[in-house]
Amino acid sequence: MVLLVAMAVLFCVFTVNRIFSRKDSYPPGPPGLPLVGNLFDLPKDYAWIALTRYGKKYGDLVHLNVLGQHIIVINSYRAAVEMLDRKGSIYSDRPTFVMGSELCGYTKTLPLTPYGQRTRTMRRLMHKFMGTGGVVQRFDDVLQEEVQRLMTRILRDPREEHLEGHLTDTTGAILLRLAYGVSAREENDPYLLRARSVMKQFFKAIEPGAFLVDTIPWLRYIPWWMPGSGFLKTAAEWRENYYKLADEPMLEAQQKTPNSFVAQTVQNDVSEDEQEMLKFTAATIFAGMLARFIRRIKLDDVFDCKRMPFVNAVVTEVLRWNVVGPLGVPHQVIQNDVQDGYVIPKGTTILANIYCMLSDEELYPNPQQFDPSRFLPDDVRPLQRDPRDVAFGFGRRHALSICLTLGC
Question: Is the dihedral of CA 145, 147, 148, 150 positive or negative?
Answer without folding.
Answer: positive
